[in-house]
């Protein structure tokens, strides 16, 4: 620590973004004589090619062993300046980025003097941290060219096939005794009327013929260790045997549950009130006429948005605020199928908003042409279902007729139920992937990284991520397959070296760190004459929870050592004169 | 409160077929009507399809005010046969209110 260091400091104007509110000349002057600072400059755009080149020349000429750039957020340019360091043969982890724009100039536009003072402190802290950096090397992990697919519905099966076609081994784990999920249960499905079970049969046959795919049915994942590229998983098979193997990536395609209405919701529980999946089964099985309890159905009503778009301020504890996306299209398609079975059935659709988006709009028109009648209701005045002598009465205010209250006598009420997240607490705990407010698995970025999770190497596919049609589920599963293949076919992944390190002189092996680590990255070893803790580098995430739990202060996080943090705090606290 | 009567439309179709299922309730017909009849044809057709007979019959004046000029039908985005539908309704009213054309 007492070694002399040679640090270069660059304070960026960002073309006025910083220098309009922070006196960057003053910042540079304040730190130019700091300990170990051998070169300090103001630059107009640190990220410009010319300035990057200038930095490289400075590093080489002045033999710098530390670099500080005070510019924008590391989110934007950390990698840029790490690459500058590498091109100048300076270890990339001896570079520190100081966020002078997002966390200083843009935030304190009202007070240039104070902003400048804060800027000086931030740069000083950056220098203090850099002074204590060590050259670190990435941890390189060789990837296992195999993928575990959890869930054997249409998404899981399609992803498995795509990966196997690329020459990668795939294991599918399905908890039911048969593959196919919801799709297998259904008859004609939109938009092309292909029979669901036939779609599954085709996929299953292709999978059967693929040597690279191993399918376990009646099985579940019970343990996952390791990290991206090299996970160790344990599967409990149907005969209760437990097998272990390694995979490089995991695709979660666990699907959805259909919303189950509560007792009395739109008359649910009364004879003749069914959910859309139950109705779909009736239609699929019908032959020439649609029957309920042996008598022919003449009039039926659909009620849309059941279990979706529930009011936030209503009586429900955990309302589903989202639109389930598939149900409008599925309901109008089913109505067309009903009209094909028995054109004499009168079908009334009670809807809030008709969301047969994109190409599915033609199915809405088709249902209308087949004499379905659409009645719009207001979200504030929901329809009511009650029982009368031998039929059901649906009461609704028809918004398309000036809110006229009408009563429709029907034999059957179909509740157009949406999708809800599947309860998979065990799996979620094993994989440690996050769940969104809606209860579905969360992607990292809804637009740019839609199938990746915050756990590197674990991808989400199909309706486990949110309500989707079959076609959209397959799109998402193929996306997960390609992200998985991209990872595995490269052959390796580089992980940042910010992991915990045990000082074996101080360690007394009390086991506290092992207990605190959520990743199982600490184990006991013998060192000379005593038992000590050691960190399994491939498992450590650098979370740092072990550090405060150690009573002997024997653990440091590389790149964020106690001394570095303390020196940064000292620098931040030092008065600016 | 009105009770929906699914068989009303069949009765209405005994003269010529009544068909407004393609209607998307856009209101072009009402907006374009040179007679400024605010009920015809969108809501009237809705009453027929829902089988609200009273609502149909109490609008006899409006239904016979129509000029059959086809301004609405020419501009209907869903090609609803509006004039034929109005003829159906007139036939029904003639029979029910004016007791005409009974066998």
Give a written overview of the molecule.
The complex is a heterodimer of chains A (577) and B (103). Chain A has 4 domains: 7-136 and 563-573, Rossmann fold (3-Layer(aba) Sandwich); 146-255 and 422-493, FAD/NAD(P)-binding domain, CATH 3.50.50.60; 262-415, FAD/NAD(P)-binding domain (3-Layer(bba) Sandwich), CATH 3.50.50.60; 500-558, Alpha-Beta Plaits, CATH 3.30.70.20. In chain A, helix 6 (154-165) links the parallel strand 6 (146-150) and strand 7 (169-174). Chain A has 577 residues and is α/β, with parallel strands linked by helices. Chain A has 16 helices and 32 strands. The two termini of chain A are 26 Å apart. In chain A, the strands form 11 sheets. In chain A, strands 10-7-6-14-27 form a 5-stranded parallel β-sheet, with helices on one face. Helices cover 49% and strands 2% of the residues of chain B. Chain B has helices at 8-12, 28-32, 42-50, 53-57, 60-65, 71-75, 82-96; one strand at 2-3. Chain B is an all-alpha fold. Chain B contains 7 helices and 1 strand. Strand 24 of chain A pairs parallel with strand 1 of chain B, so a sheet runs across the interface.
């Amino acid at each position: 620590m007492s070694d002399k260091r040679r640090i270069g400091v660059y304070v960026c104007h960002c073309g006025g973004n910083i220098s309009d509110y922070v006196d960057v000349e003053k910042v540079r002057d304040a730190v130019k004589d700091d300990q170990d600072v051998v070169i300090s400059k103001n630059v107009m755009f640190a990220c410009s090619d010319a300035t990057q080149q200038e930095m490289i020349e400075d590093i080489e000429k002045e033999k710098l062993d530390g670099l500080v750039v005070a510019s924008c957020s590391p989110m934007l340019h950390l990698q840029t300046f790490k690459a500058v360091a590498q091109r100048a043969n300076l270890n990339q982890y001896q570079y520190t980025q100081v966020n002078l724009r997002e966390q200083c100039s843009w935030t304190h536009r009202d007070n240039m003097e104070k902003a400048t003072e804060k800027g000086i402190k931030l740069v000083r802290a950056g220098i203090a941290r850099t002074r204590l950096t060590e050259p670190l090397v990435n941890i390189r992990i060789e990837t296992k060219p195999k993928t575990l697919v959890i869930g054997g519905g249409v998404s899981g099966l399609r992803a498995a096939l795509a990966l196997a076609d690329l020459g990668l081994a795939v294991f599918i784990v399905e908890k039911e005794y048969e593959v196919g999920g919801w799709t297998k249960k259904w008859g004609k499905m939109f938009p092309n009327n292909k029979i669901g079970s036939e779609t599954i049969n085709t996929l299953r046959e292709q999978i059967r013929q693929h040597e690279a795919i191993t399918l376990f049915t009646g099985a579940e994942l019970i343990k996952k260790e390791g990290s991206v590229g090299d996970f160790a998983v344990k599967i409990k098979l149907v005969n209760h045997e437990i097998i272990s193997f390694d995979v490089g990536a995991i695709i979660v395609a666990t699907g959805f549950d259909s919303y189950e209405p509560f007792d009395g919701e739109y008359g649910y529980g009364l004879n003749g009130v069914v959910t859309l999946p139950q109705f779909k089964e009736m239609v699929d099985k019908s032959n020439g006429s649609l029957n309920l309890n042996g008598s022919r159905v003449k009039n039926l009503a659909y009620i849309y948005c059941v279990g979706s778009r529930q009011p936030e301020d209503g009586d429900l504890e955990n309302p589903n605020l989202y639109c389930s996306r598939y149900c409008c299209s599925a309901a109008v398609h089913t109505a067309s199928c009903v009209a094909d079975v028995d054109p004499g059935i009168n079908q009334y659709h009670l809807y809030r908003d008709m969301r047969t988006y994109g190409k599915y709009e033609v199915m809405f028109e088709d249902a209308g042409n087949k004499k379905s009648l659409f009645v719009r209701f207001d979200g504030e005045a929901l329809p009511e279902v009650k029982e009368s002598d031998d039929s059901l009465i649906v009461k609704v205010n028809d918004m398309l007729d000036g809110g006229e209250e009408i009563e429709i006598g029907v034999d059957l009420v179909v509740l157009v139920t949406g999708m809800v997240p599947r309860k998979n607490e065990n799996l979620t705990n094993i994989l440690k992937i996050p769940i969104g407010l809606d209860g579905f698995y969360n992607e990292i970025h809804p637009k740019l990284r839609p199938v990746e999770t915050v756990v590197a190497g674990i991808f989400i596919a199909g309706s486990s991520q949110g309500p989707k049609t079959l076609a959209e589920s397959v799109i998402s599963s193929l996306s997960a397959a390609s992200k998985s293949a991209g990872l595995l076919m490269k052959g390796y992944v580089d992980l940042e070296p910010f992991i915990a390190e045990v000082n074996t002189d101080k360690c007394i092996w009390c086991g506290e760190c092992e207990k605190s680590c959520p990743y199982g990255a600490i184990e006991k070893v013998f060192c000379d004459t005593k038992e000590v803790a050691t960190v399994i580098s491939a498992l450590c995430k650098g979370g740092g929870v072990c550090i405060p739990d150690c009573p002997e202060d024997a653990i440091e996080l590389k790149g964020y050592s106690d001394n570095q943090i303390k020196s940064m705090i000292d620098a931040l606290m030092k008065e600016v004169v | 409160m009105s009770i929906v009567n699914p068989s009303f439309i069949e009765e209405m179709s005994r003269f010529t077929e009544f068909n407004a299922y393609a209607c998307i309730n856009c209101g072009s017909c009402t907006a374009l009507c040179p007679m400024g009849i605010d009920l015809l044809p969108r809501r009237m057709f809705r009453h027929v399809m829902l089988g609200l007979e009273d609502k149909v019959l109490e609008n006899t004046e409006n239904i016979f005010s129509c000029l059959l000029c086809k301004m609405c039908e020419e501009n209907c985005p869903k090609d609803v046969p509006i004039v034929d539908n109005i003829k159906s309704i007139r036939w029904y009213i003639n029979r029910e209110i004016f007791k005409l054309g009974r066998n």
